[in-house]
Amino acid sequence: MYLTPLIFIKNLWTYSLVAVGIILFIQWEYLNLKHPERFSPISNKTLRCGNCENDCRYNKCKQESKKYKQVA
């Protein structure tokens, strides 16, 4: 979607970038329709925030609360 303004620049490279973007968008939509269970946190537990291993604000709070519960 961020490549759509490039359509107005008449160049082979911009047209190829837009074409690749359209192909990737179609592929994403096809895979989302074919396998919706991979993209839904209801059916895929690894997508839930509680099972995430990334170092973000939510996980820091979660880890601090676990430490507090273990100490108390």
Written as H for each helix and E for each strand, in order along the chain, the element string is HH
Mean pLDDT: 75
Specify Rg, calculated over alpha carbons: 21 Å
Q: What is the 3D shape?
A: elongated
Distance between the termini: 51 Å
Q: How would you classify the helix and strand content by structural class?
A: mainly alpha
How many β strands by DSSP? 0
Helix content: 40-55%
Strand percent estimate: under 5%
Tally of separate helices? 2
Which helices and strands occur, and which strands form pairs?
Layout: H1 12-34, H2 57-71
Features of the shown structure:
mainly alpha, 72 residues
Describe the structure.
The chain has 72 residues and is mainly alpha-helical. The chain has 2 helices and no strands. The protein has helices at 12-34, 57-71. The longest helix has 23 residues, at 12-34. The chain is elongated and about 55 Å long.
Short description:
With 72 residues, this protein is mostly helical. The chain has helices spanning 12-34, 57-71.
